[in-house]
Every structure is written in C-alpha cells, then in structure tokens.
Amino acid sequence: MERISRILIGPDESIKQAFRKMDEAGSKTLFVVGKEDLLIGALSDGDIRRWILKGGDISAKAKAVMSGSPRYLEEGYSQPAAKELIVAERFECVPVVDSGKRIKGGVWWFDFFKDKSRKAGKLDLPVVIMAGGRGARLAPITRILPKPLMPIGDKPVTQHIMERFADYGCREIYMSVNFKAKLIKAFFSDVSGDYDLEFIEEPKPLGTAGSLYLLKRKIRKTFFLTNCDVLVDADYSDIIKFHRERGNKITIVGSMKHFTIPYGTCEIENGGDLLAVREKPEYDFLVNTGMYVIEPEILKLIPDQAFLHMTELIGKCLKKGVKTGVYPISEKSWADTGQWEQLQETLDQLGMK
Question: Domain with 99 in it: what CATH number?
C-alpha cells in the first residue's frame, strides 16, 4: 500500500497538483480515490494533455478530467491474469481492490518485466540535433568546452539525447555543427553507440533552423528536430501518434511551466490610479522545449545559407496556413541545460551534482 499511495489523488485536487504528483512519483497515471481509499477513477497524463489542448483550466479539479471506469484487479487475483491485463493495455500500474473497491495495493509493469519503458514499438525516424551555436548563456565555460559536450553525469548532453532516441529505434542521427566543430567531431569519433551519427557542418552560424537546408536531399520522411541542450522525458511514440493523428506538419513539444512573481504587482488605470495590488501572483504557461516533429516538405521553406531561427520558420508556416500543433508535457519531463541555473536544476534532478 505504501508504494501505491504515491500515485493516489483526491477528486478535488487540481489538475496542476496532479501533474506535479506525476512528476514527483515518476508516474504517468494517478488513481483518484474518495474516503477510505475508495477507487473512483483514473487520471493519465494523456487525459491532462487532452484537457489542456481543448483550453481547459489546469486549476480545475481532477474529477473533471478523470476516467470514471478504471480497470482494476480484485484481491486473490492470479498472476497470469494480472500479467495479461498489464500487457494487453500496456498499463504502468493496475490497482488491487477489496470487495468494496477500496485500494489495497497495486501490480506494476516492472513486477513482470525488467524493461520499465513499456515502449509500444520502434519508430525508425531520423533525428536532427542543432548543435552549431556558441552557447553564450553558458559562458565562459563554453569558450573552452562547446555546449554539445556539456557533461551530464559521465556523458555529454548530446550523447544522452542520442541514446534516448536510439531506445525508440531512431538511429539515423544528424548533428549540425559550426562553433568548435572539430572538437565535437573529435569527441564522437571515439564514442560508439546504437546509432549512426552524421555531422552536417554549417558554413557559417545559421540559427536554430537555418542549417536544415543542408538536409533537403537527405531526409524524406517525418523527423525529430531537437536543440542540443534539452532532455525530454516523454513517450516519443505517443508524440508521433499525436502528430500524425492531428495531421500536423510541425508539432512543438511544449512543457507546462509555473512562474511566481516574487513581488506584489500593481494594477493601474487612468495613467496611474491604483486598482489593486496582487501579492506574488502565479502564472502557468505552455513553453517551447526546443524539440519538434517535422514533415520533410517543411524543408522546402528554408532558404539556402540564410540565418533562420526555428521561431521564424514556425511564424512563416503559420502565415501560410501550415498545420502546426503543440504536444504538452509536464514541467519535470523537460530539462533545459542551456544556462547555468537550469543546468544546476537538471543535475540536482538527476542526482548528478
């Protein structure tokens, strides 16, 4: 019971609280319980994602979003039956209840399998890592060590990125380089992995999207694009499924981000009349993580050898009516290592400080 208690939530707790609890527990599903741990629903990250995408307020209560018909096992269940249910539905956890539907424990995927990922299948899609920037936000260290080689534990951040994609069968990897390109290429010449890495050398700094013109004749199917300083802990298969079901040409992976203003804010009118003072207001935004899914025809919109940021490319696509969407993930499913404060948070989060 102690193990499953970490993924239980009350029906009147907010969706924001549910997302935080998922992050803290490292779980994609919570079970909604009433008094005496009576099972009344289940809430997945997918339920929350759909709620956010239709404009739902994340301060709404969990019961507004939950599924009211959760699957469960009754006490006295057989191991084969439990395994069959978990495999058939690819459940992370199935609660075990008594005759009154009160939760008494749970059965987990990893009770039967060593692989905790539950990946539904291999994607076999190309990946492009944009690693040509100077890493100015991490200066002065990046004047010596380029940002793509910034260590996270015993590996550089780009190696972590490639290994995560390789876990999904994405082994065709392109890395766009410019600043300290020789050093980056030298490092990876001595590293082996379950992927094929090809360097694309920018003739000059081209921004976060400009060098994609070099891939127009190389990539002919859906591909992932990621900055070299972000780690995304999400189901990449589900991102692709979302992208295709929505018919998107570009999908941005967006993270929920919570901000608290550490001051009282003044609301005014008529050139200076005070309306109200709000003490330390809080705001929630869906921010761009720097990871995308892109269809190859988008490459045609990128001019040769022109400086272009990804935000500019997206703006161009929106003006042309190109279908563009956002796949939301939780705040702790995204780690930004591109500046000192975020790098320290990432190292703390991963226990690598």
Answer: 3.10.580.10
Please list, in sequence order, all residues whose beta carbon lies within 8 angstroms of the beta carbon of residue 167, skipping any fewer than 6 positions away.
117, 119
Nearest to 352 by CA among 88, 156, 90: 156
Mean pLDDT of 198-203: 94
Q: Are 72 and 94 in contact (CB under 8 A)?
A: yes
Q: What tokens were used for 80?
A: 């084969």
Q: Are residues 305 and 173 in the same domain?
A: yes
Is 132 found in the same domain as 101? no
- Same-domain pairing of 181 and 277: yes
Instruction: Calculate what percentage of the chain has a pLDDT beyond 70.
Output: 93
CA 86 vs CA 32, 69, 260: distances in Å: 19, 16, 40
For residue 308, what are the domain limits? 127-349
pLDDT at 9 over 80: yes
pLDDT tens digits, one per residue of 32-52: 999 999 999 999 999 999 999
DSSP-derived secondary structure letter, 130 = E
For the record, the structure tokens of 275 come out as: 């309306």
